[in-house]
Amino acid sequence: MKEAAFDAAYHSIEKEAETVARVLEYLDKAEFEKAVGLLAAAPRVMTAGCGNSGIAAKKFAHCLCCIEKSGAFMPTGEAVHGGMGFLKAGDALLLISRGGKTAELIPMMEIARKKGAAIITVTENADSPLARGADALLLLRDIEESDPTGLMATSSFMAPVALLDALLSALIVETGFTSGKFGLIHPGGAVGERLNNKQGL
User: CB under 8 Å, gap of 24 or more: what pairs does 153-159 form?
Assistant: First the structure.
């Protein structure tokens, strides 16, 4: 391997670690609390995003299920072909879009608004349609990608994932979710074995 290749790899990890740490510097507590409240109160949560934002949204939906919150990732192509029927009044829609202008997400926001569902947006662009239409706005700022081209979704993927993991942690405390409950719904793998042996389930 070229020495320059290892340097690039080292720089990538260093840059991503800095990006995640910087989220704490600009985290808006009021908006974060609002998002936690909306998610905790929602009977169901739909998440959506395109590309790597969609991957982050899908992970968060799965994590919600792991703490016994009904979460579902909705592919944008399915959303406007009946998928938005999942949402009811009082539910929540969480959208992730770096630029806040993702065309596929805007109709989802508009439908959710008409149905009386809350909208939570994660974006870098405060002056965007998805930001302006949000009930809770979680802003990310000044993200520089970590790869040599500066074009790959590297740091811009890690930052929203860290923010969503922070939401998950807050929800665990807010809803009183316990590891005992997790043992019941996660019997598979090493985690399930460890939890269930410990609890004698």
Answer: 153/51, 153/52, 154/12, 154/15, 154/16, 155/15, 155/16, 155/19, 156/52, 156/98, 156/124, 157/52, 157/53, 157/55, 157/56, 158/16, 158/19, 158/20, 159/19, 159/20, 159/23
Q: How many beta carbons lie within 10 A of that of residue 138, not counting itself?
A: 24
> Between 3.40.50.2020, 3.40.50.10490, 3.40.50.720, 2.40.50.90, what CATH number should domain 3-199 receive?
3.40.50.10490
Rounded distance, CA 172 to CA 168, Å? 6
pLDDT (tens digit per residue) in 11-39: 999 999 999 999 999 999 999 999 999 99
Average pLDDT rounded to a whole number, residues 28-52: 98
